[in-house]
Amino acid sequence: MSTTAIPAGTKWWSGGKSPFNVSYGKVMMWYFLMSDAFTFGAFLISYGTIRFSVNHWADPNHVFNAFPFAGHANLPLAFVSLMTFILIFSSVTMVLAVHEGHNMNRKGVEKYMIMTILGGIAFLSCQAWEWTHLITGDHAVLVNGQIEHWGTTVSKNPWGPEVMFNGQEIATPGPIAFGGYFFGITGFHGFHVFSGVVINIVMYIKTKLGHFDQRGHYEMIEKAGLYWHFVDLVWVFVFLCFYLV
Amino acid sequence: MSAHTSSPEITFQPNHSGGTGRIWKIFWVLSVLTIVELGLGYFLYAQHGHLGYATVLATKCTIGLLTLAKAYYIVSVFMHLGDEIRNLIMTIVVPLCLFVWFIIAFLIDGNSWKNLRNTAAGSRPNKMEQVSNEAHQ
Prior knowledge:
The complex is a heterodimer. By secondary structure, chain A is mainly α. Chain A is 62% helix and 7% strand.
């Protein structure tokens, strides 16, 4: 799509030019994203360590099996697949906005930025529904010989191993870390999506006002795009670690 | 089209004259990879309790590899890192190799904690694995 014709034998480190052949701002965006990757990586690896250290962990197919307006239907993986496709598609519209920016087509950039912003808002709405469902949904748990009804929160995990009680199977409290890791990591990711949406709205307004036409290039759209794709990238791993395995 | 200079740090201007075909192609690649992942995830769900340890582990590793493939396509094509010069690619990718040690070391550590707890630091046999095997039967 965009290949750079570089003469053979170019001395990148001889001074007088950027050894990376990109602007300062873009290099710094890449380094920021790399540090953010380590932050998310550390969170997910810490989650993995705790999950490996206990005998029983909540089964994602039981915890995440609901779908809006579907009542109590058992639909494992369905809602989170929808969220995944929303984010992948908003990544596509973002890269199309960058492409229109390369062609200095302001109308095209505006159109695709609006679609990307809507995709981000749709994702956040899905996450809000999912959190509400988890926190408010009641599940019978056997606590000290009594049946209680718990939602999934940072201090309560009703998805522990099942035992027989009065002739029926009933769950016991699971590792308390489950809610903390789930809400902590998806919340940190959701906060990235939220800030990405805010950045994209700012970029949309600046496009609309013609700032990038005056500047002669749409590189700010590229930098916002890098951030947005990173948010999608992190979701790919959150999806893997919390829902698939 | 790209004759305008966006920054004096860019010595060689990239050529952006291509179409959007590659973007849509990668969209379909990502979608198919996701659907395969979901299929494997659903297989694990549907066959829960009927699969051996090795099969479950192999399926989960396959899902992990498919995720890495998705990450490669997002970074390489959507973030255009594949179109940048080698110096920029290396300054981002080489530090990320730290994750190889990071993941292996900490997952082994977690597993070691589990064994230490179940055996009271090696002072009694591990009864937990028998219990979990019986629970699935």
